[in-house]
Amino acid sequence: MAKLKIIFEDKNLLVIDKPAGLVVHEGSGQKGETLVDLLKSYLPASVCKLERCGLVHRLDKETSGLLLVAKTSAYFIFLKELFRTSRITKEYLALIHGKIAPRKAVIKIPIARDTVRRVRFSPARSGKMAETAYIVVGYFKNFSYLKVTPKTGRTHQIRVHFAGLGHPIVGDKIYGRRDSVQPGRQFLHAHRIEFIDPNGKKREFVAPLPKDLEKFLNQES
Q1: What is the residue-wise DSSP string for the chain?
Q2: Domain annotation for the chain: domains and CATH numbers
């Protein structure tokens, strides 16, 4: 069984850095070890076992980075409320195709599940509003390197928004391009997360860019 990469842990909270390729929980067509399996093994006595093992958010299989796991029922409820009221900041690092402009903007495009391919989501007037802020860190010959902050939490939001603008995430197998230059998986990493805890203390956690994505970025620079 794989081991959890733990960024932080106390009596209330576990912060992990999920590797790409690890599914958060079982779903349609998914087989093999999941993050939930690892959490059940690591926290066998957790009171949150029946509450998604304390998970209050998720990442796509091929997206790496930070995930918050509540270790108590009270903290689970607290974190869920933070996400519901958008009082938590999540920052991603992303590499997209092309040179996006302007260098800083907020994308506001509603998203809905694709009526034909149910695993996909698409921009749709009838969908739920989704909001994604970004700032360009740097431009490369064929790509733009971004810091991305989703203001809402729709499924595949970041991937759908940039694909809809004609700048899909590099390596995205669902919404991306089939180019010869690929990092081996989608270049999307949950880099930083920040919130104010119940005691009024600012909590900030950072997971550095994984070596595979760092290597690909260096090759393109």
Answers
A1: -----EEEE-SSEEEEEEPTT-BSS--TT--S-BHHHHHHHH-TT-TTTTTGGGB-----TT-EEEEEEESSHHHHHHHHHHHHTT--EEEEEEEEES--SSSEEEEE--EEE-SSSTT-EEE-TTSB--EEEEEEEEE-SSEEEEEEEESS--TTHHHHHHHHTT-PBTT-TTTS---S---SS--EEEEEEEEE-TTS-EEEEE-PPPHHHHHHHHHH-
A2: 1-85 (3.30.2350.10), 88-221 (3.30.2350.10)
